[in-house]
Structure formats: C-alpha cells, structure tokens
Amino acid sequence: EPEVTQTPSHQVTQMGQEVILRCVPISNHLYFYWYRQILGQKVEFLVSFYNNEISEKSEIFDDQFSVERPDGSNFTLKIRSTKLEDSAMYFCASWPGTGTDTQYFGPGTRLTVL
Amino acid sequence: DAKTTQPTSMDCAEGRAANLPCNHSTISGNEYVYWYRQIHSQGPQYIIHGLKNNETNEMASLIITEDRKSSTLILPHATLRDTAVYYCIVRVLTGTASKLTFGTGTRLQVTL
User: Fold this and answer.
1) CB of B50 within 8 A of CB of B65?
2) Rounded mean pLDDT of B11-33?
C-alpha cells in the first residue's frame, strides 16, 4: 500500500539554524499538508499546498516557514531560523484530490531545537 | 467546523468491543463526522467517516444518532495494537484542500 514518507525521522539543530524537512507524498496525490504536534499537545495545521501554491495557512505559519515542491515527488518544509518553540513532531500529509477527502499522514519528523 | 466533545480516556479489555463516543451537538447539515487515530506519536491514521447513515469498514463501525448530535466509533474486537488516541472531527466535505482540526481526543488503552 502506498505511504507518505518523511526524512529525517529525527533532526537536531541549534537555535537560529535553518532546517528543511522532507516529505514524499503518495504518488498521484495533488494536495499536500504540513501539521505539527508539540509534545503533549494537539496536532496543529500549518499549511496546505495545491498546484504549486499555498491554499491555506495557519497563524503559526509565519515568514519563518516556507514550503516547496522542488520536483515531482518531494514536498519540503523549511524553517529559516529555528526557535526553541519550533521543537515538535512535524507531519506531512497528502490527499489525491478526489474521493473521500481523506488525508494520509507520514510517520513524522521529530525536530529538536537546542 | 463544529466543535466535538470526547472523553479524555477509556479502557477496554482485549477482544472486547471498544465504543468511543463523540458529542457534536452543533453539527451542521453538510458536516461529516470523521475519525482518525494516532498511535504513540505516529502520524494520524484515517479510520472512517459518515454523514448520517451508519458506516462500516474493515477497521471499525460508525454509528451516528438520528439527530446527528452524537456518534460512536466501534472497534468490534479491540487488540493491544488499537491502543491509541482517537480523534472525532466534524468537517465540511469541500472537495478542496481543507485542513483537519484536531482536538484532544480519547486515549484508548486496551489491556490484557
């Protein structure tokens, strides 16, 4: 069964550094998402992406964040200058664009900012 | 999207049915009930969804009351691997890239 994959599984970085989290959505899916979950808290929506544009973004998704689909398979989330409070699990999800509006999530990347 | 209320936690013996309730008394006529679960910090996993009819798939059954103000997710024969946080989400099926809004969910502990 096709799956969303994410790399790395764990990223440790110093405050102020840039990080890029990578996702490979399910092939033929058209809609892509990033969510995050701070330890012990709810899963929070960050951004949705379709047709090479941001469809919707939350208040969390400020100018420090950006998303890109650099090629036909990868979907990336970049944090330009990480803060301690960016430490969280980051989940990528995708949806084919038809059918039941079901989003398929990847296993997540744990980002630790020191 | 309508707000949902779920119990914080529930226990279930392995092999028994797990019945997870969800209250969504302010649900609108065009809002669907979705269930996802999250096993120990893994990515959320879709389980089932419905509008007003009861639904069943290979993972679970969804029972929606006639007035649609509440629903119950049923795992017919819970196993230890069903231990997870279960999220009830009410949302409009827009056909576009609409976000999922997660609450705190119900932490289901399946025990021997």
Assistant:
1) no
2) 95
Beta bridge partners of B68: none
Residue at A101: amino acid letter: D
Strands (E), A26-79: 31-37, 43-50, 53-57, 65-68, 75-79
Chain A residue numbers with beta carbons less than 8 Å from the beta carbon of B40 are none
Q: Tell me the C-alpha to C-alpha distance, in Å, between residue A105 and each of A63, A92, B82.
A: 24, 6, 17
When CB atoms are compared, the residue of A44, A105, A108 closest to B45 is A105
Q: How many residues does chain B have?
A: 112
Whole-number Å distance between alpha carbons of A107 and B45: 10
Which tens digits make up the pLDDT trace of B35-64? 999 998 899 999 999 999 899 999 999 999
CA proximity to B83, closest of B34, B45, B57:
B45
pLDDT(B99) > 70: yes
Question: Is the separation of the CB atoms in A93 and B43 below 8 Å?
Answer: yes
Min Cα distance B9 → chain A (Å) is: 14
Residue position matching structure tokens 């119950």: B72
The CA–CA distances, whole Å, from B7 to A6, B23, B104, B107 equal 32, 9, 9, 8
